Amino acid sequence: MGSKYGSYSSDRRTSSKDKGPKVHPVWRGVGFGFMILIPIMSYALMMLLLEQNDVNGWIPLTPDMMAKPGEFLYSIYPDPLLYVKISLFLLCLFVFYAAFLLISGMITGVFGVSRKDDPFYVPPVRRTKKPPKRYKNY
Prior knowledge:
By secondary structure, the chain is mainly α. It has helices at residues 3-6, 25-56, 72-76, 82-111.
């Protein structure tokens, strides 16, 4: 048997054109920046909301919400507001992520992808011949 049938390699079957449009390097940097910036912003907002909750008393923190001595996470980080901080941090993280996703989606919608760059665009089918006329038998 020849080497043609002996092994399979996808490298020679695919070219760089088949892989789709390339992402501009600036967007990789922006994504990396947001990956670092969003958790920092979420932590700052969480601390700000907890301080304002102490001043204004929006949500009363009950003992059921507090971490108790003897629990696993309390032994790692002894803070009675640990569960409140974790849940509020995750909520802020989700809100910031959703907001930036919405903004980037609106920007992409405005400046959109053209038809030639869209990997999911399928041109309409064009007929080369006219369909035959139907004859009626009278």
